[in-house]
Specification:
Helix content: 55-70%
Largest sheet: none
CATH topology: Recoverin, domain 1
Strand content: under 5%
CATH superfamily: Jann4075-like
Number of helices: 5
Shape: globular
CATH class: Mainly Alpha
Length: 113
C-alpha cells in the first residue's frame, strides 16, 4: 500500500469516526490528489481551526480559487460548520478531510470530475 493510500484510509476513518460521514472514496481520493504534496508535510497536512490566517487561506485558496465560489459570509459560515462537525477540540484536523467536507457542503463534487 502506498503512502497516499494509507493517508486516504486514515482520512476516511476520520470522516467516519469524528464526523459521522461515510466517505465517497472516489471523491476523497480526488480531493487528496488535489491537495498535492501538502498531505506529506506534517504542518501543511492539517488545518488549525482557531488560526484566522489559516482559515483565510482555506477560504481564499480552496473555496474561492479551487471551487470557484464567490466571496461571501456563507463561506465563513461553512468553514465554521465544518470545524464544528470535525470537533473543535480535535487538534488534528486534516486538510484533505476539511476540503472534502467543504466540497460536499457546497455540492461542488463536479470540480473533481
Amino acid at each position: 500500500m502506498s503512502k497516499r493510500d494509507e493517508l486516504i484510509t486514515k482520512y476516511a476513518a476520520d470522516l467516519k469516526d469524528k464526523c459521522g460521514v461515510a466517505a465517497d472514496m472516489d471523491l476523497l481520493t480526488k480531493v487528496v490528489i488535489g491537495c498535492g504534496p501538502a498531505i506529506y508535510n506534517k504542518d501543511a497536512a492539517t488545518v488549525s481551526g482557531s488560526d484566522e490566517k489559516e482559515l483565510a487561506t482555506v477560504k481564499n485558496n480552496f473555496l474561492i480559487k479551487k471551487l470557484g465560489l464567490a466571496n461571501s459570509a456563507d463561506l465563513d459560515k461553512a468553514i465554521d460548520a465544518v470545524m464544528e462537525k470535525y470537533g473543535r477540540s480535535n487538534r488534528n484536523k486534516y486538510r484533505a478531510v476539511v476540503y472534502y467536507l467543504l466540497t460536499v457542503h457546497f455540492g461542488k463534487q463536479e470540480v473533481y470530475s
